[in-house]
Amino acid sequence: MTHSAANSLHEFNLLLVESCASHSLKKMVLSKYRGADKSLQRITIKPILLQNKPVFSFLYQHQTNHITKNHSSDEAIGLINSLLESDFKSAYLSTSSMDIQLDISKKGKAHITKHKSKINDKNGQLHDREKHRFVDINRPFLQQLGVTDKQCKLIPAMSRKWKQINKFIEVFSQALETSPLAKNEGINVVDFGSGKGYLTFAIHDYLRHTLHNDAQVTGVELRQGLADLCNKTALTLIIKAYLSSVGM
Q: The pTM is what?
């Protein structure tokens, strides 16, 4: 990496640190991946609230699967710097006042461009509301159940179901918080009358992915067709997660 590229990376890092400190960061995208994992396409980073604590959500977008990991501010900044120094050659940083683009050429030259932010107040308010969602709309189970499309966008006809899923997890999280159950021990949940499994998969994903609890969630459904549908969905998600973990 050239001296000018190192300076550009340093400048970009200062802008990133400043946006984190002032809570003005809205979104960040790392793209033009050049690492060993051929299935990884980009990483989208957003500030969210998790159990009333601010963290940064890293959405690793693979060809067949998406993986979300959450990091503290300091961890996020260090990880972003490391990724830009090695595997990614482009970064887009959107703040409440400015859009910043970093591009690194094949020869190692870096260039930064800055523009006035395109995010207006209305969109900013929408983003703030989205931060309070208990379910990440990018989670694979939502796509598999037909709540979102292949681009992880909400299917309009499923908007009521999307709200129901979020409200259910919100109520469950509050109940869990006030319960005597130990949060670091595996929880067993049984969902009687699970139907198509929207809430069953949601609570499994919340416990396993968000809370990192070694939970066992069982859906009980007497209608064989729906039980078969849920089992097929679970198997498909397991296969996709495995293929993603081995870089396929």
A: 0.50
Strands (DSSP E) found in the chain: 25-33, 40-50, 53-62, 66-71, 88-95, 98-104, 110-116, 188-192, 216-220
Residue 60 phi/psi, 5° resolution?
A: -85, 110
CA distances from 84 to 50, 102, 147, 244 (A): 26, 10, 33, 22
What's the average model confidence in pLDDT over 143-161? 92
pLDDT of 86? 84
Backbone angles phi, psi at 57, to 5 degrees: -95, 120
Adjacent-strand bridge partners of 47:
56
The two tokens of residue 144 are: 């598999």
CB distance 105 to 202 below 8 Å: no
Alpha-carbon distance of 6 to 78, in angstroms, equals 15
Calculate the average pLDDT of the chain. Answer: 85
Instruction: Report the alpha-carbon distance of residue 210 to residue 159 in Å, rounded.
Output: 22
Q: What number is the average pLDDT over the span 6-19?
A: 86
